[in-house]
Amino acid sequence: MSSKNNVNGQAYGFQAMTPIEPGKEHELRGYLEGMHAAGSPLEKLPRTHMGRFVIVEDFHNDPSWGQRKEEHLDLQYLIFTSNFDGELDSYLDELCEVMAPEAQEIWGRCVGCPASAAGDELKAYLKHNQIDCGFFYAAYGAATVPEVKAALRQRDELIAFATSSQGLGPEALQEAFIARFGSE
Question: What's the pTM?
Answer without folding.
Answer: 0.79
